[in-house]
UniProtKB/TrEMBL annotation:
It comes from the Bacteria. It is an enzyme of class 1 (oxidoreductase). [4Fe-4S] cluster 2 binds at C50, C53, C58, C72. GO terms for molecular function: 4 iron, 4 sulfur cluster binding; anaerobic carbon-monoxide dehydrogenase activity; hydroxylamine reductase activity; nickel cation binding; peroxidase activity. This is Carbon monoxide dehydrogenase. Keywords: 4Fe-4S, Iron, Iron-sulfur, Metal-binding, Nickel, Oxidoreductase. [Ni-4Fe-4S] cluster binds at H263, C299, C337, C445, C475, C516. Its EC number is 1.2.7.4. It comes from Solidesulfovibrio aerotolerans. Its cofactor is [4Fe-4S] cluster.
Length: 626
């Protein structure tokens, strides 16, 4: 790692301390590897390299001196659009395949073939089943679970005209999608079709590819991700407000520390169940530990935080650094956003990485495969492994750098509506009165190209200052939580109107609504507000932002937000700048097609100004004070 000031890497004290320790311990981190990769390939950054076939690989010269077409004849616009389309397809595939795993679990519960999982929110099971058109009267919960699982499986194929949750989309938006031809069909169908279209010699019109990218992103947002969220609530409970703690200070020097990392709650919920087993606690005590401490990383951490109040150790860029504390026995992972480097970093300490999914193995990790029939037993094995590793922990290498910060979490739509007395009417009144001028979903990742949590947390501050209610998911949750922004006291940092509403309700001005698949909760809320007002989502005073995004999934989220009518600001540009057609479409053309577009702005104050300007326009058009 270079000699740069530690504050250039991250605004977080725990990150800075652990980057310094990594240097002392000779551990390589994501920032070291980024430096070795720089400068990045300019063709790739602009989206102008193609390796879709072996007549290539090809590169289009952005300056116009070199080749303007690949061997097949594809120009810059086609190459960029195809690459972006595949990026969005990969992101949708990740979220939606995660959703499918939840349906598999729901099916096993319905069939009665698992004793490890069950229905924790039967009322929601029945409500959702009725919503998607199933008859539930007189049926027991298992029978309903079975039918609902089968119904959701159909959303992945191509047997039906459209996805189950299409009625959550306001009528005006549905009509627009029909007109433009981007109504999502089967989830797998739309993802596969993108792979088909981007094979050499299929779809060679950049705009046509981009419109299909929009359609498949909608199949994720209103389909695969929404199914993941709703089935997770049915199986593990619908979140309700509660408090917990965040940052590396949630690790405990005198306890066995287990971190869950990845995305689905299927594994992490079982680990949670196991750490409370008296027999395991006794084993931990016999090994000299005061207890067994469980904390989360990234989105499966968000799942446990939202539903069970389990503390969060950190977001994406904290995953290596959590191991550098020397206090972590086991990181148990499922899939997505788990840097392969974790195995190497763990090897520098006594820590073990445990993989659990047949689709996500890491060379050098310990593989303990979970399925619906053995999950409880496998979770016990993971905890036993952690107790064994505690015995060989080197206390001299342990450093837990900070005290944890308190956060409030659990703001599912159900919880928000309950807090408002059962309907969205008080929220709509507050928006009409201008106390809450609008709402902004600030979501996504960390990226080592930018100072960790700086853009995420400062955009939040700038928005709440302007009386904009902020909803956070994913890794932004930790950025907000560490700065104290997820507690009711943060109302003091909000504008007068938002501050007044938050204080009256005892809520923070920044609401944690879950993991990245839970961005579907924000879509559903927007749909409800638009329908209540008789307008389209694009008419609402709302916006979205992904200030520090890195992943393909975040690209998909950004696109389904825009295709749903929500103006979206990205902190880093996607690899599309090599095509004028695709870039113009993204930052302005889409406005005329779906009523929203992207902006790219890395400065949080300027990003907030863009969002504010948008919300002024929307409020004025609704006849409200700007
Ligand atoms: Fe991954 Fe979901 Fe991004 Fe965090 S926010 S780095 S995608 S864990 Ni989803
Ligand atoms: Fe080159 Fe065309 Fe093949 Fe891409 S698809 S690698 S541009 S020949």
């Amino acid at each position: 790692m270079g000699k740069r000031d530690l504050s250039e890497y991250s605004i977080c004290k725990d990150a800075q301390a652990m980057i310094a320790k990594a240097r002392e311990d000779g551990v390589e981190t994501v920032w070291d590897r980024l430096r070795e990769q720089e400068p990045h390939c300019g063709f790739c950054e602009l989206g102008l390299s193609c390796r879709n076939c072996i007549m290539g690989p090809c590169r289009i010269d952005p300056f116009g001196n070199g080749p303007q077409r690949g061997v097949c004849g594809a120009d810059a616009d086609v190459v960029v659009a195809r690459n972006f389309g595949r990026m969005v397809a990969a992101g949708a595939a990740a979220h939606s395949d995660h959703g499918r795993d939840l349906i598999e679990t729901l099916l096993a519960v319905g069939e009665g073939t698992t004793a490890d999982y069950g229905i924790r929110d039967e009322a929601k099971l029945r409500r959702i089943a009725e919503e998607v058109g199933l008859a539930v009267a007189g049926k027991d919960a298992k029978a309903v679970a079975l039918e609902l699982a089968e119904q959701f499986f159909n959303d992945f194929g191509c047997r039906r005209g459209s996805i189950s949750f299409i009625d959550r989309v306001p009528a005006k938006r549905r009509a627009l999608w029909e007109k433009v031809g981007i109504t999502p069909r089967g989830i797998d169908r739309d993802v596969v079709e993108m792979l088909h279209r981007t094979h050499m010699g299929v779809d060679n019109d950049a705009v046509n590819i981009c419109l299909h990218a929009a359609r498949l992103s909608l199949a994720d947002g209103w389909g695969g991700s929404m199914i993941a969220t709703e089935v997770s609530d049915i199986l593990f409970g619908t979140p309700t407000p509660r408090t917990s703690k965040v940052n590396l200070g949630v690790l405990k020097a005198d306890q066995v520390n287990i971190l869950v990392h990845g995305h689905s709650p299927i594994v992490s919920e079982m680990i949670l169940a196991a750490v409370h087993a008296p027999a395991l606690l006794a084993k931990a005590k016999a090994a000299g530990a005061q207890g067994i401490n469980l904390a989360g990383l990234c989105c499966t951490g968000n799942e446990l935080l939202m539903r069970q109040g389990i503390p969060m150790a950190g977001n994406h860029l904290m995953t290596e650094l959590a191991l550098v504390t020397g206090a972590v026995e086991v990181v148990v992972v499922d899939y997505q956003c788990i840097m392969p480097s974790l195995v190497t970093v763990a090897g520098c300490y006594h820590s073990r990485i445990v993989t659990t999914s047949p689709k996500a193995k890491f060379t050098g990790a310990t593989h303990i495969e979970f399925d619906v029939h053995n999950a409880r037993q496998k979770a016990v094995e993971v905890v036993e492994l952690a107790i064994e590793r505690f015995k060989v922990r080197d206390a001299g290498r342990v450093e837990i750098p900070v005290e944890p910060v308190e956060v409030m979490t659990g703001f599912s739509n159900e919880a928000v509506l309950a807090a408002l007395g059962g309907t969205a009417a008080p929220l709509i009144e507050a928006i009409k009165a201008g106390k809450i001028r609008g709402a902004v979903g600030i979501v996504g990742c960390n990226n080592p190209k930018v100072k960790q949590d700086y853009q995420n947390s400062n955009l939040i501050r700038e928005c709440i200052k302007r009386d904009l209610l902020v909803l956070v998911t994913g890794c932004v949750t930790v950025s907000a939580g560490k700065q104290g922004l997820l507690m009711p006291a943060a109302a003091d940092l909000a504008g007068p109107g938002l501050s007044e509403v938050c204080k009256a309700l005892g809520i923070p001005p920044v609401l944690h609504v879950g993991s990245c698949v839970d961005n579907s909760r924000i879509l559903q809320l927007c749909g409800m507000l638009a329908t209540a007002l008789g307008v389209d989502i694009s008419d609402l005073p709302v916006a979205a932002a992904a200030p520090e995004w890195y992943s393909e999934k975040a690209a998909t989220i950004g696109l389904y937000a825009v295709a749903s009518g929500i103006f979206t600001v990205l902190g880093l540009a996607p690899p599309i700048l090599g095509s004028k057609v695709v870039t113009d479409l993204a930052v302005s053309g889409l406005e005329g097609v779906v009523g929203a577009s992207f902006a790219v702005e890395g400065d949080p104050v300027k990003a907030a100004e863009l969002i504010d300007a948008r919300i002024r326009v929307k409020r004025t058009a609704l006849g409200l004070t700007p």
